[in-house]
């Protein structure tokens, strides 16, 4: 029996088209943690871009325009908070949602990141379920604001 004879249009019988996977840029200087973040995000279906510092990550951000940025706060050369502040001033990528990750546990760092527009701040070590839930929530909030 074909889809037409079953009363279902042939178009509806085709597999639904999946939307393109959201792209996530991870800027993290710790090699092992960077790979772990990338592995968790890729296994959840995200397209993952990786950068080891703010200079490389900033260029990737401008050229790739990812859907979300996972940003370490403590980076060499240019810190994550400084990059976040510069990002918010750029009209092309300024609305990109950012999830900060840090080993710092002080309130001042958390408050500063949130004041600069971070969607969330996660403290290392980050559990996979916490990372994925936070990324999904930030992406959903971002798409609801558009």
What does this structure look like?
It is a single chain. With 146 residues, the protein is an alpha/beta fold. Helix content is 45%, strand content 16%. It contains six helices and five strands; from the N terminus they run αβαβαβαβαβα. The longest helix has 18 residues, at 128-145. The radius of gyration is 18 Å and the shape is globular.
Structural descriptors:
globular; 16% strand; 45% helix; alpha/beta; five-stranded parallel beta sheet; 146 residues
Total E-strand runs: 5
Helix/strand-derived category reads alpha/beta
Compressed to H and E, one letter per element, the order equals HEHEHEHEHEH
Helix content: 40-55%
Radius of gyration: 18 Å
Sketch the major β-sheet: 5 strands, parallel
C-alpha end-to-end distance: 44 Å
Shape: globular
Mean pLDDT: 89
Query: Helical element count?
Result: 6
- What proportion of the residues form beta strands (DSSP E)? 15-25%
Instruction: List unreliable stretches of 5+ residues.
Output: 1-5, 8-18
What is the topology, as strand order, of the major beta sheet? Answer: 2-1-3-4-5
Give the secondary structure arrangement, pairings included.
Elements (H helix, E strand, L loop, with lengths): L9 H4 L9 E5 L3 H13 L3 E5 L2 H11 L3 E5 L7 H10 L8 E5 L4 H9 L4 E4 L4 H18 L1
Parallel strand pairs: 1-2, 1-3, 3-4, 4-5
